[in-house]
């Protein structure tokens, strides 16, 4: 009899434990190390204390680079969602020298990697209502669809053909374009409420998806580099998420973009590793765990669940597992490890496996902050 009672009690204990675990499969309840506010404060403050980013330290940067822009933007969004006025002031003061003593660091908007800079002043305008920020940011957004006057005529002719198709002259069909282009255009729409900005971003996105998305929902690094590189795919995942978050329901391209997004998320679900993250090469289990791409995927998944684009029951455990795994790579200083260094395309499998793994690189810092904001969003 005693044995039977003990068995029943043990069964009840197991059931309660499993029930407790089930109740915690959400995107709201976290252990302290994974608490979005805790992580956000740590990583945002690390950014505030960091010098301007450069691809080749310790040489001083020639201009503000896109990894810094993306981290700056993430920190600004965290300041807003957490109502941290002190952080907002710190991030604003980091920007102010760009109008004066550091104006040489403001990039020219002649390339997608530089045009995305406009995202930061536009976000600063939204939070401060300082029109100087708006004017600067809009110059970058408008430049993407304005023919550059200082280009040779033969180049202008090629650019004009793209503009005639409703595409930016900066179109290259590179996967990271779909964050760099759609991000600044989405912000311009949020600031001005002029549909042309978001509508042209959606058209650009659809053309890219029709051109470069593969049957499995993922993307090669380039046509001549047929590898599903993690961070490259991360830019696409994040870009679609940002665009869909702002894109009006009545935009004709929205259903096709959403379908492509869901197709990619289903593939990422398939390739998620047992530890919760994704590899340097997504479909190659022998490749090393890479955190910047993994964080971008996590951001896209959280955003999809939060907005109802993805089935919550199916995708919440995936997003939760990924976030819990990511925070284990963040050290006490607020730096995330296992970040792939800057990587150009190459038709060489071993090249991708041999890329250096960095700690504290802003390619990885940025999407951690994006995840924080997505988790905190109501």
From TrEMBL:
Gene3D superfamilies assigned: 1.50.10.10
Keyword Hydrolase: yes
Signal peptide extent: 1-22
GO molecular function, one term: hydrolase activity
Entry's transmembrane regions: none
InterPro entries: 6-hairpin_glycosidase_sf (IPR008928), 6hp_glycosidase-like_sf (IPR012341), Glyco_hydro_88 (IPR010905), PolySaccharide_Degr_Enz (IPR052043)
Keywords of the record: Hydrolase, Signal
Protein's recorded name: Unsaturated rhamnogalacturonyl hydrolase
Protein species of origin: Sphingobacterium ginsenosidimutans
């Amino acid at each position: 009899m005693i044995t039977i009672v003990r068995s029943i009690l043990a069964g009840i204990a197991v059931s309660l434990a499993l029930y407790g675990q089930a109740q915690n499969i959400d995107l709201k309840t976290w252990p302290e190390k994974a608490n979005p506010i805790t992580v956000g404060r740590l990583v945002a403050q690390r950014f505030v204390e960091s010098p301007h980013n450069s691809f080749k330290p310790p040489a001083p940067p020639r201009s503000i680079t896109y990894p810094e822009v993306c981290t700056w933007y993430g920190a600004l969004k965290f300041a807003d969602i957490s109502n941290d006025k002190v952080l907002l002031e710190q991030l604003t003061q980091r920007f102010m020298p760009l109008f004066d003593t550091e104006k040489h660091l403001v990039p020219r908007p002649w390339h997608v990697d530089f045009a995305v800079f406009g995202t930061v002043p536009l976000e600063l305008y939204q939070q401060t209502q300082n029109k100087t920020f708006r004017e600067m940011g809009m110059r970058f957004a408008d430049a993407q669809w304005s023919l550059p006057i200082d280009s040779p005529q033969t180049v202008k002719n090629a650019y004009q053909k793209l503009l005639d198709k409703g595409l930016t002259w900066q179109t290259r069909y590179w996967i990271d374009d779909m964050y760099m282009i759609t991000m600044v255009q989405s912000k311009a729409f949020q600031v001005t409420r002029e549909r042309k900005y978001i509508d042209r971003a959606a058209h650009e996105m659809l053309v890219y998806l029709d051109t470069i998305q593969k049957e499995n929902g993922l993307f090669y690094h380039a046509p001549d580099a047929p590898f599903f590189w993690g961070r490259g795919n991360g830019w696409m995942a994040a870009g679609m998420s940002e665009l869909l978050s702002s894109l009006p329901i009545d935009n004709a391209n929205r259903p096709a973009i959403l379908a492509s997004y869901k197709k990619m998320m289903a593939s990422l679900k398939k390739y998620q590793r047992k530890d919760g993250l994704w590899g340097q090469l997504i479909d190659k289990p022998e490749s090393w765990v890479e955190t910047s791409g993994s964080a971008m995927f996590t951001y896209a998944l959280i955003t999809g669940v939060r907005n109802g684009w993805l089935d919550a029951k199916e995708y919440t455990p995936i997003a939760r597992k990924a976030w819990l795994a990511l925070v284990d790579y963040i050290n006490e200083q607020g730096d995330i490890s296992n970040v792939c260094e800057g990587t150009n395309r190459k038709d060489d499998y071993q090249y991708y496996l041999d890329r250096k793994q960095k700690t504290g690189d802003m390619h990885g810092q940025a999407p951690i902050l994006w995840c924080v904001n997505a988790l905190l969003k109501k």
